Each structure stands twice: as C-alpha cells, then as structure tokens.
C-alpha cells in the first residue's frame, strides 16, 4: 500500500493528488503541517517538505518534481522511441518540454510571487504555532501578482485546448492545484478572467478533482462556490 | 545551431552548461543579466529567467527543469522498458527519483536557503542598477545554511560514490553548479568538509567543468583557488 504525506492546502501536494487520481493510483493520505516538521517526518524526507510518496519497503519519493516524473515513468505504456505513452507528460520531447516549462512556472514562479505569500498571510496566521507578524505589503503584492498569473492562464487557455497544448497534462494539474488553493482562500476574481475560468471549470469537473473539493480545514472554511462545479 | 541564454554566476545556467558538456552538445552562449530583463528576452522566455536553450526554428526550452529533462529525453540511447540509457538520469524509475529529489534539493532548497541570499548580497550589490539596501542578517543566515548544506553533501559523499548513487548524475551537476557559485564568491570553507571537497574535486576535474572555471566577471574576480583543480 502506498501513502502520500501531504498538507490539504499545499499546492504541490494537491498537484500530486490530482496526478494520482488521473493515473488511478490508490493511496492513503497522511496529513503533515508544513510549519511543524517532526523528527519522524525528517526521517521520511530530510528536506522537511511535503509531498512525499511512501511505497513498499523503504521506497520514498520526495517532492512534487520527483513524484510527478516517477508516476509518468511507471505509468502509461512503453511507446515508440523509448517514450511512455498515455502519461501526464504527453507527446514528443519538445511537447514535454513545454509541459515542464509550465509546471516550473506554477511550482516555482507562481508559488514564489503569489501563492506562498497569500497562503502564509491568510492561513498560517490562524494556527497559533505558525503565526508571524502579518505583513500587509506582502499580501498586497501577492494579490497583484495573482492577477498577472491569471492573465497568463487566460492567454494560454485562449490559444490552446489545454495549457501546454492539445492534451491535458501535468501542467494543467499543477496550475489548477495552485489556483484551487487561492480559490479556497477566496482570492480568485474568476469573473474578470472568463477564459481562465472556463479552463478551470473543465479541470475542476474531472473525477480526480473531487477529493480536493471535499477538503475542509477546521480553522477556515472555503467560500460556497469552492466546491461548486457551476461557480 | 543551438544557443544557451545564461548568466555566468546563475547556478541553474551552470548546471545546464555542465549537462551540455557531458552530452557533448555544442552551443553558443548568450549572456543575460537576471536583474535586467529586456523586452526581447521576454519574447524568448515570458517567465523572464535563464537558462533558456534556443534551438532550430522556433524551439525554446525554458528553465533548468525543462532543459535537463529534454537533454535526457533526446540524448543517450533507447533501452529496455521504454527507458533511455547513458543519460544524466541513470537507472530505474526509483534511482531516477533519487536523482530528482536531490536536483530539487539544490535547485529549490539550497537556492532559497543559501545560494540566492549570498549571491544577491555579495554580487548584485556591485552592479549599480541591481543594488539594494544590503541586509547583513540575510547574508548571515545564508552562510549558516550553507554550512548545513555542506554537511549534507559530506554525508551523501561519505555513503555513496556519487550524490545520488553509484553513477554520476544531474544531481551531482546541480549540486556542483550551486557550490561553484559559492566558491567563486569565496564562501565555501572546504577544509571543514573534506568529503564534500573530495567529491567536488572529482566533479571539478571533468572536462565539462572547464568552461565554468574560465568565467570571470569584470566587477568581481574569483579567489585564486577557484580554478585550481588541487584546491
């Protein structure tokens, strides 16, 4: 049996929960709090962060990068030219590079410029042991950057079927994971970005998304539209 | 002909220059300054960062993640089970996951906790258009974290032939790229970490490393030992 160490509002963990759902992998979830890293968890991942996929015997796959590629390496079926087909990194090397460019965009750029500041200021403040002095400038900047990222998603959704091209890929899941955290925190002005909204509605209606829509933190409930497929 | 947009002391760019050297890919280098992103460069990579590998016609591979995987996808030779052999992500899926865990360690954790603070405080200050108010607390913290990361490299080098296992991989190149930037800035107390030093000396003596040892910024020269293989 496989276990995924995660935190419900960690976008990296969410991207992997979505990928696991798409590949139809059954896992048990083990919740960790990113600001309270236990000794036991450091044994699992010395880097101290989620997600971690724990497999049979001593196997530990640490971090969204390693897990997303591992799932692609071991799922789908061997195809032509040493490539695996039916994975979340579809197509030829050039197409896969475009998927990875966008995964990097969300897992690195979006996270640093928008996601992390908003999450820390809006959520972590609600946990006494994680609380820091709030920084209104940080959340203002995060919100401003979020709008720029939403424009970019709209631009991509306008020009393509899915964010990286003709097929759904891990780029869609990574982007949707980050935006779903912002949506839980009621930070996404969807009505201003109709193309991003239409794309998000498509990802949100996939069966792999359902478990995320059921997440509820005791310290903060999501807005009513969060779990609504017709938001 | 291929072009690599890079900045000489960008660790992400360096990791790709090393990988290109290992795969024996000839590229032309085009230097960019990370703090001065031109409109022309934003056309190349809307994310605004280096490295970017520009190929024939419209092909642009953006970011160290996409480039490192693209090079592996298109180099080596097709092997058993849909796997490519003789790449910088060697072995089975589990072994490759370990390579990627460590790449993530350096490209994300090391960069955030040590590399970026030290680079900005020590180098960027020397460019009038990039200068900010120096923050002595930031560089102190970066140096403290650098020691922790050096201990981890020593630990890995003690237990394994190469950082991720029996074979040299992109994990070694990513780690050496980040440490080589710190070394240029004379920030690495090698004598306190003999196992890390022995491993670094092995990576440093590879032909792929030679171009990096020749880098010289006009605003700041490296220490004498920087290019010395018997440092």
From TrEMBL, chains A, B:
Q: Which GO terms describe its molecular function?
A: glutathione transferase activity
InterPro entries referenced in this protein's UniProt entry, alphabetically: Glutathione-S-Trfase_C-like, Glutathione-S-Trfase_C_sf, Glutathione_S-Trfase, Glutathione_S-Trfase_N, GST_C, Thioredoxin-like_sf
This chain belongs to the protein called Glutathione S-transferase
Q: What CDD domains does its record include?
A: GST_C_family, GST_N_family
Can you give the residue ranges of the GST C-terminal domain? 92-226
> Which PANTHER family does the record cross-reference, listed alphabetically?
GLUTATHIONE S TRANSFERASE D10, ISOFORM A-RELATED
State the oligomer form and interacting partners: Homodimer.
What is the originating organism of this protein?
Dichotomicrobium thermohalophilum
Q: Where is the GST N-terminal domain?
A: 1-79
Keywords assigned: Transferase
SUPFAM superfamilies attached here? GST C-terminal domain-like, Thioredoxin-like
